[in-house]
Amino acid sequence: MERAVGRLASERPVVIFSKTSCCMCHTIKTLFSDFGVNPAVHELDEMPRGREIEQALARLGSNPTVPTVFIGGERVGGANEIMTLHLNRSLIPMLKRAGALWV
After folding, report:
1. Which of 3, 26, 58, 64 is 20 to 30 Å apart from 52, CA to CA?
2. How confident is the model at residue 102 (pLDDT cuts 50, 70, 90)?
3. Residue 14: its H or E element
4. What pLDDT, in 10s, does the model give residues 30-42?
5. Is residue 68 a contact partner of residue 16, using CB atoms and an 8 Å limit?
6. What Cα–Cα distance (Å) separates residue 1 from each residue in 31, 55, 95?
7. Cβ of 101: how many Cβ atoms within 10 Å?
8. Bridge-based pairing state of the strands 68-71 and 14-18
9. What is the pLDDT of residues 56-101, one digit of tens each?
10. Cα angle at 4 between 54 and 12, to 5 degrees?
11. Which pLDDT does position 61 carry in this prediction?
12. How far is CA 7 from CA 21, 26, 35, 59, 73, in A?
């Protein structure tokens, strides 16, 4: 299942694994949307194999498992890591390098 996560994580410059009921997931999706980024979003609670994917994310080191954000195919982390990068002014350059932003 980790390979499936890797394939999904590489389908766009930014990929978010989320759940529809998760408020921090909503916050992270909104942040990227406000930047003009169009991430691939995988709502695990709406996917047939969502629980298996969530377990694979945990094995890859995601704790909590959602939200988990991949940028340029690499796991960046969850809400705390994304907000830290944003506050350190490192997130926008990372998004530009991954090809998720052009401005």
Report:
1. 26
2. confident
3. strand 14-18
4. 999 999 999 999 9
5. yes
6. 28, 9, 26
7. 18
8. antiparallel
9. 999 999 999 999 999 999 999 999 999 999 999 999 999 999 999 9
10. 95
11. 93
12. 24, 23, 25, 16, 9
Q: CA-to-CA distance for 103 and 96, rounded, in angstroms?
A: 8
SS3 assignment, position 95: helix
Q: How many CB atoms are closer than 10 A to CB 14? A: 23
Containing 97, the helix (H) or strand (E) segment is helix 91-98
Write the single-letter amino acid at 47: M
pLDDT at 15: 98
- The single-letter code of the amino acid at 89 is R
Residue with tokens 């980790």: 2
Q: What are phi and psi of 42, to 5 degrees?
A: -110, 110
Q: Enter the tokens of residue 25.
A: 């997931």
